[in-house]
Amino acid sequence: MYQLYIANKNYSSWSMRPWLVLQAFHLPFQENIIAFPVERNTGTFKQDVLAINPNGKVPVLLDKELMLWDSLAICEYLAEQHPDLALWPQDVKQRARARCIAAEMHSGFSQLRNLCGMNIRANLAEVGQRLWQDNPELRQDVARIEQIWAQRPHADGFLCGAFSIADAFYAPVVTRFMTYGLPVSESTLQYMQTMLQHPAMQLWIADALKEDGWVNYLESYQQKQH
Ligand SMILES: N[C@@H](CCC(=O)N[C@@H](CS)C(=O)NCC(=O)O)C(=O)O
């Protein structure tokens, strides 16, 4: 059984990606949550992560003595270990495209990432409206994502055919678009609905909504209600 180390499901977009892949493809894994501290650099989060990964970040996948510490590398490894399961699309052209768009997400979209941190339980639509008006780079990031999503083979399907690693990489964007109420097209809304109906996505969101951990440094737009 794989061991997957992740942080809070409400906030940890990098954790969400490999977790969704493991869950969606019914791979045997145990999740281990190392919760972020309330204030940065307090608590035992860093030392707990460092005890398994010298890079000090989650997600981490352990396969017996082998330790993998990057979401894309973890997904590539899982795809290699389970070649019968099409974690990447079976079709060679869709597979190439899936790799390109997953890599683009892995290394890009910094404005969306920085301004609209994942926060599944929050409703930050007013904040989103202001961010949208004030940040042309955010609008550019969203436009590029909408372009990628619009190129999916079927309007009512996933990015490269069946659900794959590519969809897992864009899953946190689906939740961000919801949290910040960004003004997206009908086609984008349709893809979001497709993703929101996936059982693995539903399970992650349900778990996130059950969490009570509040992390001040990831809540730049709202105060904790007492
Ligand atoms: N490129 C890494 C990014 C991992 C990452 O930034 N993880 C965040 C959580 S979402 C983290 O562990 N942050 C804790 C810290 O930086 O102290 C990946 O793809 O896994």
UniProtKB/TrEMBL annotation:
Pfam families for this protein: GST_C_2 (PF13410), GST_N_2 (PF13409)
CDD domains with a match to the protein in the record: GST_C_3, GST_N_1
Domain GST N-terminal: start-end pairs: 2-86
Any one of the GO BP annotations: glutathione metabolic process
GO MF term list: glutathione transferase activity; maleylacetoacetate isomerase activity
InterPro entries assigned: Glutathione-S-Trfase_C_sf, Glutathione_S-Trfase, Glutathione_S-Trfase_N, Thioredoxin-like_sf
Gene from which this protein is expressed: sspA
Gene3D superfamilies linked to this entry: 1.20.1050.10, Glutaredoxin (3.40.30.10)
Listed name of the protein: Stringent starvation protein A
Origin superkingdom: Bacteria
